[in-house]
Amino acid sequence: MKISTRLFAATLAVGMTAGLSVPAHATGKMKCEAGPQSGWKTKTELEANLVKKGWKVKKSKVDGGCYEVYGTTPEGDRVEAYFHPVSLEKLLVSRRGKILFRKE
Amino acid sequence: MKVMLRLLNSLPVFWIFLSVPALILVRNYLAGDVIAMDMLHPTGEFSARFMIIAMLISPMMTVFGNRSWLTWLLRRRRSFGLAAFGYALLHLIFYVIDMEEVSAMLAEIDAPGIWTGWLAFLVFTPLAITSSNAAMRAMGKRWKSLQRLVYLAALLTLAHWLLIHDGVTGALIHFAPLALFQLLRGIIIYSKATPKAVQTE
After folding, report:
1. Distance from CA of A33 to the nearest CA of B (A)
2. Which domain covers residue B91, as residue numbers?
3. What is the reported pTM?
């Protein structure tokens, strides 16, 4: 193997390793100005609320200062939905990139 | 020493190298560190990455000439293509696990972000099936025409990624080198084909 080839193979290896670490970041789809987290309702409370309404929750996290939930609506749509962390009000629901609901 | 290097540089070792990300990802899933949903992004991204590398080799040869590292890559082009399919298959498997029910998958098949992915996978499948030496020999010239369908698969993959993902940056960063080198190849081929008056300058 020539040096350039070896160098290239090494670059490829480094590039692949770098690709394994996907950083968490704000997506910018929704923003909530909800003050300090101490005043927020908990994720558990939101999830319990949703399950009571017939949702299936896969996962939830904080995105753009809002709660973002991945799950299935009572209607059976697989969606990602945003909720206000203090009022737990539904702000945005989208299915595979298509917006199904947006709070006016 | 020489034998060792040759062994390290062999195709089977390269296949192991290509499957390392998959092994790490699946291990994390089996260990319970991540759920099926979280497997979608990395498996899809590796699929696209390997497809793009496979597709970059030929235009890079037009641009850079026959460099040794390009020949090295060219010998591994089918491996990259097959790896791209393997990661796409993994991507699909985790989609099915995540969706749990066929009815849920059918319910969203009309979403552009979803059907472009299905279609990309369907286009990819015959390319992977015919990737063996035997299939290559048996198909003769038709093999190359069939493999050119990868351009269609690439466009569908790009559309799938742009339509489904959070933001377009990741997709554009991955596809930009491919667009660039295809453009450069186009320019080089076009300039060689233009009349002599231009060439003798």
Report:
1. 21
2. 2-166
3. 0.86
